[in-house]
Amino acid sequence: MQQQQADVAVIGAGIVGLAMSYKLAKQGKKVVLFERNSRAISASIRNFGLVWPIGQTAGKMYNRAMHSRSVWKELAAATGLQCQETGSLHLVYEQDELAVLEEFTGAAAHNGYDCELISPANIGKYTQAIKTNGLLGAMYSKTEMTVNPRQASATIAAYLQEQMNVTTRFGTAVNAINMPFIETKDEKWKVDQVYVCSGADFETLYPAIFADTYLTKCKLQMMRTVPQPGNWQLGPALCAGLTLLHYASFNSCKTLDALKRRVEKEMPEYVKWGVHLLISQNGDGELTIGDSHEYGPDFDPFDKAFINDLILKYMHTFLQAPDVTIKEQWHGIYPKLKNGNTDLVLSPEKDVMIVNGLGGAGMTLSFGLAEEIVSGTYK
Question: pTM for the complete prediction?
Answer without folding.
Answer: 0.96
